[in-house]
Each structure stands twice: as structure tokens, then as C-alpha cells.
Design brief:
Blueprint lengths: L27 E12 L9 E12 L3 E9 L6 E10 L6 E9 L3 E5 L14 E10 L20 E3 L17 H11 L10 E10 L15 E9 L6 E6 L3 E4 L6 E11 L5 E7 L56 E3 L4 E6 L4 E10 L3 E4 L3 E7 L15 E5 L4 E6 L2
Parallel strand pairs: 12-21
Antiparallel strand pairs: 1-2, 3-4, 4-7, 5-8, 5-9, 6-7, 9-10, 11-13, 13-17, 14-16, 14-19, 15-17, 18-21, 19-20
Organism: Opuntia streptacantha
GO cellular component, one term: TRAPPIII protein complex
Pfam family, one: Ig_TPPC8_C
């Protein structure tokens, strides 16, 4: 129910505007019944209270069909690519999109490219828009990435070039917040946000031709809600090899040592242990590309000598001993991992850790630094029995491709 202010007095023949927001869950014919209770100001009247009953019939028609697809960014650990597909389902109406907002867990959103969305969206027209979504806790938007159509909250994007940031709806306040809460209840999801999900709210309105001041009218709008959109890819680990992509080095003086790092994120709500195993590649499996003009019978690179079997790599500063690696008899790998061949770490729930790694490169070329494995295991509390019907408690992932180009410096 709605309660009017106590000091509200309606004079004779004076109209009163009541801001009534209405949202239909499904298309179709809907009957709205309203009962208004009021009292007469004349104290001499015996029966002071009155009730006014009204009924309205609405025909709710489809407007915009909205769907979202989320995929993980291959070059950034906590950044995602969002594709929004719009379809105008009407036969004659045109619509304009006002803003897109994300709800829950401090998400930041911006357009992938600062482009103007075609307006209006005509009847039967389809449109796709792309955005980048970032975790507001784990990541920040750099100054170079700030886009002009993101407001100070960074959770709203204006989609109409004629709309100022001051004209954006605050989706945390009524009526949009009330609509969204009931939408989540209708879909059977809780009202609590989760780091693995994000909600989207698209606000649109009918196309109106007229002065620009009409575009700031918030009395008539449409809100489209997409709840509990998952960003998880189904695995407990997200990781990313971080390091230079191109390096210049003078190989006539020494080999090249390259420092990189593995950033590993635990996507589970439970602690896990991760073991990183590295293995040196061989020329038959590496993606080395030799400089143009080198004959096949005289290829550059390291070749076997009598001392090959005596090569050993010392242990890392943590004291983890690395066993001697016997390289193939016909040739030596063009690059090797330095330090320990096995590193163990522990990650608390929803945390990220950076593990430094290093390789040594002996000849120019392009290499795929993916010859490593991540072995994860769920850590259980002391005395806790494993649940046979629950999710997997361990697993192994092969390293993702990371291409590094090393060039001879001049």
C-alpha cells in the first residue's frame, strides 16, 4: 500500500498527481484494482471517511528482448567481456536505450569502445553492444581506460549521447531498486550478491521526436532486468602468465634471463593448495621461429656436447631441490626454466597470489611458454570428512599459451 503525507489536503476541483510506478512481469492483459481511502475535511459530517475504487485494464506488449553473454578476458585476470544483444520485438514501436547498470559486488562497467549506439532501435531491429566488466575490489580502471560515458559511480553507462550523467537513474533507489528486488524473487534467486554473479539493468524509453528537454523526462521508462548472470567458467582456478611479449637481447655476449609471473586466483569459497610444475621444452615441441636466411643444416641454437649429461640446475632460494634434467642427446632446449621445477602455494577463498617465475633463452625466436601444469587440491579442515557427492576435490590444468618473442639486438 501507499500512504500519502498527513499534511496533504486536496482543495475543491484541484488535481493531485500521484507518482504510481507499474511494472508487468509478463506480457498479456492485466487488470489493476486500486482503492483509495480518504477523509472529508468538514468535521460536521457524520461519516467522514470515504473509499474510492478504481480499476484499469492494461495490455502489456513485448518491447525489447535483452540477453547477456559474459566471457573472461584472455589478457587480464579479473576483467570480462560482456555482450548485450537487443531485439525490438514490436511491429511498429521504436525505442531508445537510456543506460545500462550493473548491480552487486562492486562491479565496474564501461563500454569496450567509446562509440555511439544507433538510436532509435526500430521495430524488428537487432543490435549487439560490447562492454568490459571489472572487479572493483581486485582491479581498477586506469586513466587511459576511463571512458567519457561512465559516471562517477562507474557502475552505470549512459547509452544515449543526448543524456547527461546527471540524468542517469540511481538503480539503488526506488522505483528501480524495488523492481529489481521483485525480479530476483520471481526468478527464485536470493537478494544477496555474490562475487561469481552480476545483475544487469537496462533502462529504455519510447522514441520521441522533439526538443532535447524531453529526453530528461523520467516519468515513462522501461526497465529490463537480467539477474544472476554467472561469470564463472566452471573451474576453481583462474590464472594468467604476465610478462614481456617482446625482448631485444645481445646473444653474442650471454644468454637472456627473463622474469615473469603467474597470477593465480582461487574462485572457490574454500581454501586450496596449488602445485606448479614446470618442464623444459625441446626444439621438437617448442614454437621457435628461426630468423629468415638461416640454412636448415646450420640452424642457430644450442647443440649437444659431451658435458650435457652433467648439467644440473641448482635449487631455488626456498630450498626446494630440483632434480637434474637430462636433455635429449641430439640437441638442447632453446630455453629452460630457472629455479625450482615445483612450487607449492596456498590460496584462501576468492584470493589471488602472484608467483614469480624465470626462464633462460639461448637463441632468438618466438616461444610458447606453456610447458607447465597447475595441480590444485581442496584443503579440508582438520577432522572434516570429504563429501563424496560434492564438487571435485582436486584436478590438473595444463599451462595456457603465452607467446614470447626474443630478438637479436643491434
Amino acid at each position: 500500500f501507499f500512504e500519502f503525507p498527513e499534511d496533504l489536503i486536496i482543495q475543491g476541483k484541484e488535481p493531485v498527481l500521484w507518482p504510481l510506478w507499474f511494472r508487468a512481469a509478463l506480457p498479456g492483459s492485466i487488470s489493476l484494482y486500486v482503492t483509495i481511502y480518504y477523509e472529508v475535511g468538514d468535521s460536521s459530517v457524520i461519516m467522514r471517511y470515504r473509499t474510492l475504487r478504481m480499476s484499469y485494464n492494461f495490455e502489456v506488449m513485448p518491447s525489447l528482448d535483452v540477453s547477456f553473454q559474459i566471457s573472461r578476458c584472455p589478457t587480464r585476470l579479473r576483467e570480462f567481456l560482456v555482450r548485450m544483444d537487443l531485439i525490438n520485438k514490436t511491429s511498429s514501436q521504436s525505442f531508445e536505450v537510456h543506460q545500462l547498470s550493473c548491480v552487486g559486488y562492486n562491479w565496474l562497467i564501461a563500454m569496450l569502445q567509446p562509440v555511439n549506439i544507433p538510436s532509435p532501435i526500430l521495430a524488428g531491429q537487432a543490435l549487439s553492444c560490447f562492454f568490459k566488466l571489472q572487479d572493483g575490489i581486485k582491479a581498477t580502471i586506469s586513466k587511459e581506460d576511463v571512458i567519457s560515458n561512465v559516471d562517477s559511480r562507474e557502475s552505470d553507462v549512459r547509452l544515449d549521447a543526448r543524456v547527461n550523467n546527471e540524468d542517469l537513474f540511481d538503480v539503488s533507489k526506488s522505483p528501480v531498486a524495488d523492481f529489481h528486488r521483485y525480479e530476483r524473487l520471481q526468478e527464485g534467486t536470493s537478494d544477496q550478491s555474490h562475487s561469481g554473479t552480476v545483475d544487469f539493468i537496462l533502462i529504455s524509453h519510447r522514441h520521441r521526436s522533439g526538443p532535447s528537454t524531453e529526453f530528461t523526462d523520467h516519468s515513462r521508462f522501461f526497465s529490463h532486468h537480467a539477474c544472476h548472470c554467472s561469470i564463472a567458467s566452471g573451474g576453481p582456478l583462474y590464472w594468467l602468465m604476465d610478462g614481456p611479449r617482446t625482448i631485444y637481447h645481445d646473444f653474442s655476449s650471454s644468454f637472456c634471463e627473463i622474469n615473469m609471473s603467474l597470477r593465480i586466483h582461487n574462485a572457490l569459497d574454500a581454501p586450496i593448495s596449488v602445485r606448479i610444475n614446470t618442464s623444459d621444452s625441446s626444439p621438437s615441441t617448442s614454437h621457435q621461429s628461426h630468423p629468415t636466411g638461416v640454412a636448415s643444416e646450420n640452424q642457430s641454437g644450442w647443440h649437444d656436447i659431451s658435458l650435457t649429461n652433467e648439467i644440473k640446475v641448482t635449487s631455488d632460494p626456498l630450498g626446494i631441490t630440483r632434480s637434474a634434467r637430462q636433455l635429449p642427446a641430439n640437441s638442447v632446449a632453446p630455453y629452460i626454466w630457472c629455479g625450482s621445477s615445483s612450487t607449492n602455494i596456498q590460496l584462501v577463498p576468492l584470493s589471488t597470489m602472484e608467483v614469480p617465475v624465470q626462464i633462460s633463452v639461448f637463441t632468438p625466436g618466438t616461444y610458447d611458454i606453456s610447458n607447465y601444469q597447475l595441480h590444485w587440491k581442496l584443503l579440508q579442515s582438520e577432522g572434516e570428512a570429504p563429501d563424496a557427492d560434492s564438487r571435485p576435490s582436486s584436478g590438473t590444468y595444463q599451462g595456457q599459451s603465452f607467446y614470447l618473442t626474443v630478438l637479436q639486438s643491434t
